[in-house]
Specification:
- There is one protein chain.
- This protein is α+β, with helices and mostly antiparallel strands.
- The protein has a domain of 115 residues: 3-Layer(aba) Sandwich (Aminopeptidase).
- Helices cover 24% and strands 33% of the residues.
- Strands 1-2-3-4-5-7-6 form a seven-stranded mixed beta sheet, sandwiched between helices.
- The C terminus is likely disordered.
- It comes from Paenibacillus chibensis.
- Keywords: Acyltransferase, Transferase.
- This is GNAT family N-acetyltransferase.
Amino acid sequence: MKLQQQTFTIRPSQIKDAQALMNIDALVWTERTAPEPLCWPTREDFLLHCPPASQLVAEVDGVLCGYVGFRHPTNLAGNRHVYEIHIAVHPLYQREGVGTRMIRAAKQWAAQQGMRKLRLRVLSTNPGAVVFYRKCGFMEEGRLMDEYRIDGEFADEIWMSFFLEGTERAEKPD
C-alpha cells in the first residue's frame, strides 16, 4: 500500500469511530503485545474508557487505520505535564509510515496542550515496537523485570519517554 498516492489525515477521535477503534484493538493488542488480548465487552464500555477526542485517529482514504491515545498517568496535579500514550496501527497499514506520522502528530498535539513529557509502556516480547519507539526518539527510562507471564514465559514491561521540544529537563543537583 503506497500512502503517498492516497489521502491521509489525522484528526481527533469522534463517537462514530468507536467500532473501528474496537476492531483495531482486537487485532493489535494480542498476547504478544499486551499482558492480555484486548476485546471490549460493549461499545459503551469502550466509550467510557476511550471517550471521543481522547485519541488522534489516522485515516487513509476515509478508512480508519490507526490511533494514538492520550491520558494523564495519574490524577495528581504534580503529574499533569505528562501524557501516557498508546498507539495501534491496523495490520494492513503497518510498516507504511502511519505510526511514525501518528507519533509526530501526538508530539505536536501534546505540546499544544502544554505537556512536557510523553511516556509509554511496551512489553519486551514486542521488540519491533521497542525499535520503532527508539526511532521516534523515545528512550528507556526503566524496566519492570518479569512483570508478566505470557504463554508460560516471563516478559519485562519497558517504560519509555520522550521530552517534548522546547522543554528542558530539570538538572538534578549534585
